[in-house]
Amino acid sequence: MLEKDYLHYLVGTDFSVGSTNFSAQFIQMLVLDYEESILQDEQDNMITFLAYQTFLQETLMANLFAYVGLNNKDALIRPTVTYDFADGFEVLAGANVFIAGDDEVESGYFGYYDDNDMVYLKVKYSF
After folding, report:
1. What is the pTM of this model?
2. Which of 43, 46, 111, 114 stands the most exposed, by the fewest C-beta atoms within 10 Å?
3. If pLDDT is split at 50, 70 and 90, which confidence band does 104 have?
4. Cβ neighbours of residue 57 under 8 Å, at least 6 residues apart?
5. HEC per residue, the chain
6. What is the pLDDT of residue 106?
7. 52, 62 in Cβ contact below 8 A?
8. Cα 59 from Cα 65, distance rounded (Å)
């Protein structure tokens, strides 16, 4: 096994447009002193995106979060809707949608799970 040092960094921003909040990040990992015998890419590039907004006096929240792998053009998209029924009682419905890239051999972090999309429902009571 060959071990190499690497640099892993993130650059991001948060902003609002009207009552909708957004966040975006660029994440990169660089393998230092890269050698062709290493199975991992010399660079791994990813972006994340978040958009959310509340409605009905902040009792309903719509959220869209996405990871996008730029190397393999794969993605994970996570839409959710949360409703606060009462103090401490909320219901969340969401999904995990995996998208594979163009390359069937190298599917990336998320493309590997392309056939494993899911929806879920979460009921939470806090006291």
Report:
1. 0.83
2. 43
3. low
4. none
5. CCCCCEEEEEEEEEEEECCEEEEEEEEEEEECCCCCCCCCCCEEEEEEEEEEEEECCCCEEEEEEEEEECCCCEEEEEEEEEEEEECCEEEEEEEEEEECCCCCCCCHHHHCCCCCCEEEEEEEECC
6. 65
7. yes
8. 19
Nearest to 25 by CA among 2, 44, 50: 50
CB 120 within 8 A of CB 108: no
In the chain, what are the domain boundaries?
6-125
* Virtual torsion, Cα 113, 116, 118, 124, nearest 10 deg: -60
Q: Per residue in 11-63, pLDDT tens?
A: 999 999 999 999 999 999 998 888 877 777 788 999 999 999 999 999 999 99
